Each structure stands twice: as C-alpha cells, then as structure tokens.
Amino acid sequence: MSLWFTEKQTSSFGITAKVNRTLESENTDFQQLDMVETQEFGNMLLLDGMVMTTEKDEFVYHEMIAHVPLFTHPSPKNVLVVGGGDGGTIREVLKHSSVEKVTQVEIDGKVVEYSKKHLPHISCEYGNPRVELIIGDGFEHIIKSENRYDIILVDSTEPVGPAAGLFTKGFYAGIAKALKKDGIFVAQTDNPWFKADLIKNAIQDTKEIFPIARLYTCNIPTYPSGMWTFTMGSKVYDPLKVSIDKIFDINGKYYTPELHYASFVLPKFLQSLCK
C-alpha cells in the first residue's frame, strides 16, 4: 500500500507526492505543521496542508526572494525577514558580505525547531552571529519599527491563518515606514493562475506607496501551478537598472545575473494584472 499526500490548490485541482514516512505532525499554537519524507522531493514542510518547502526545490524560492532585492540595493546592511522559519532566506541573505545583521521574526517557533531537525542544509545559518531570531508577530514588529531596515523580505505562507494580515495595504504602508529612505521590500505574492486577484491587489497597493513597484517570477514545481510571483517596492533603486558587473556569483542553483533581469519579463496575461 502506498501513502500519498495531496495539496488541494483549488476545490478541483491539486498536486500529489508519494510519502515514504511522516517525520512530524503537530497542531501548534498557530497552525497544523507536518514534516514528511517524500520519494520525489525529499523532506517536505507542510503548514495547514500546504507545501512550504522541500529539500529538492527550495533553492529556487530562497535565492529569488533574497538576491533580486539585495543586488538591487547598492549596500544592504540591515535586513529584516518576516516569516521564513525554515531558514532558507537568511541563508541566502548572508551570502552578501555587506549585510551586518539579519533580523528574522517568525511567529511559530515550531517551524524553526523542526526545520533545524529535518532540513539542516536549509536552516544551517541559525547559529550565525549576524542573525537575530525573534519568535513573535511580524506585523507587530513592523509597526513598531521606523527608518530601521535597508531591506525587508516577507517570506510568508499563503494568506490564511497567521499570515492573512501580511497581504494588506496597511502592512505595506507599515513596511514603508520601517524602511530607510532608500529601502526595498519584497513579498512573495503567490501564483497568477489561481490567485490573480491577490497579485493585482498587491502590485496596485505597492504602486500607491512606493515610487518603484515591480513584479517578477520564478518556477517552483511544488508550489501551486509552478509559476510563482514576488512583488517588489523600492523607494529609490530600480532592479532593472542594476549594473550586471555588480552581481557576483552566489554559488547558487537558480539565480544568475542574466536571470535577475529576465525574471521581470512577464507574459501578457500577467502584465495585465500590473496595469
């Protein structure tokens, strides 16, 4: 008998993976957390039945949420990561020597705990002295911060449960206040096949708050539809005007200097969401 996990991405569509064994299953204070070992993608973190990351394809998301903004800013020193308890985003941020401190605010400490245990190559930088981990509410942390960060990365789950407030115009406005005068923020904004309205609202809200607002994409096979978007808001720096000579080798598997620009080239149906 085979055991399969299916994430229902809509009421009539889902993706499925063969599970070798369940490593953890716990109803935390905030969500249902499961860690399973899959045959195709290795260990897989699930929150409320949704795939958050896997050993096989995690590098795509983490490289793209981190390096596009960090190479856009000429000298990022103080970075905030909201969410991202698996640790992959801070791992990528720390590849930039200009970064003096990464503050991570993760609401669910169990995500960090089980990621350290079962996703060690993703969570490998938690002991780095440049990292401050805060178990708490990212929304509240943003509201209490002002003119503090060069870059803010919103590495959240989908807009349900504890992450629902992280997709609102009020949150983006709070981010703008928490950023320095030349700051940049990036938020993951789901996929255009099933969440077109979410993307449209996110980019429109960002345009009303930031002088520069751009949408970019990547391909992640275990995320809904495989096509994933990120929304960037920047006070000064345009990611399309970065000199390619400034982009160094990050020793990654997905992000490249050429892809930095190419990721902003959108298919026509996605362009229409940004108007």
From TrEMBL:
BP terms from Gene Ontology: spermidine biosynthetic process
Binding-site residues, spermidine: 62, 86, 155-158
InterPro entries recorded: PABS, PABS_CS, SAM-dependent_MTases_sf, Spermi_synthase, Spermidine_synt_N, Spermidine_synt_N_sf
Any one GO cellular component localisation term in the record: cytosol
Catalytic activity entry: S-adenosyl 3-(methylsulfanyl)propylamine + putrescine = S-methyl-5'-thioadenosine + spermidine + H(+)
EC number in record: 2.5.1.16
One term of GO molecular function: spermidine synthase activity
Active site: 155
A family per Pfam: Spermine_synth
Domain PABS: 2-235
Binding site for S-methyl-5'-thioadenosine: 31, 106, 137-138, 162
CDD domains: AdoMet_MTases
Record-linked Gene3D superfamilies: Spermidine synthase, tetramerisation domain, Vaccinia Virus protein VP39
Pathway info: Amine and polyamine biosynthesis; spermidine biosynthesis; spermidine from putrescine: step 1/1
Sequence similarity: Belongs to the spermidine/spermine synthase family.
Function: Catalyzes the irreversible transfer of a propylamine group from the amino donor S-adenosylmethioninamine (decarboxy-AdoMet) to putrescine (1,4-diaminobutane) to yield spermidine.
UniProt subunit comment: Homodimer or homotetramer.
Protein name, as recorded: Polyamine aminopropyltransferase
Organism listed in the record: Fictibacillus phosphorivorans
